User: Which sequence fits this backbone?
């Protein structure tokens, strides 16, 4: 192969990686700003799960949005044609895919963070104390039968 074609192939691969990686990374960073982790382990687990959920559910969410609002793709193609000079269809798909991946990754950050904090409180309190607290919150009964 001549160097020109491999360089263009590498550039195309970089564009695809950036198209998928940037929204996933933004989802992790946004989650980090809104609900910061308490430990390095929690940070690692939550970041990996957020990026994985962005990759798994983002394209499906984008396909659902496009199926729900087919005119959205026409509007995004118009936007890409008037905003840049090349790759109109790919750029239009990214306009839909990027926010979809972001929205698909954020719940993973928050749900996993809430779960990890709940498990930490369970370890501190113990199961019986946690059950008594849950009973108090659900039924309004006080411990010791003073209800």
Assistant:
């Amino acid at each position: 192969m001549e160097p020109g074609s491999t360089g263009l192939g590498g550039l195309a691969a970089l564009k695809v990686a950036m198209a998928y990686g940037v929204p996933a990374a933004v989802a992790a960073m946004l989650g980090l700003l809104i609900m910061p982790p308490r430990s390095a382990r929690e940070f690692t687990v939550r970041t990996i799960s957020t990026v994985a959920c962005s990759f798994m559910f983002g394209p499906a969410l984008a396909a659902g949005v496009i199926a729900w609002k087919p005119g959205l793709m026409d509007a995004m193609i118009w936007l890409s044609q008037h905003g840049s000079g090349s790759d109109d269809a790919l750029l239009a798909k990214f306009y839909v895919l990027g926010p979809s991946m972001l929205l698909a990754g954020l719940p993973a950050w928050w749900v996993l963070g809430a779960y990890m904090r709940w498990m930490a409180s369970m370890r501190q309190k113990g199961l019986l104390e946690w059950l008594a607290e849950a009973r108090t919150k659900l039924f309004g009964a006080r411990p010791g039968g003073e209800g």
Observations:
- Residues 88-125 form the longest helix (38 residues).
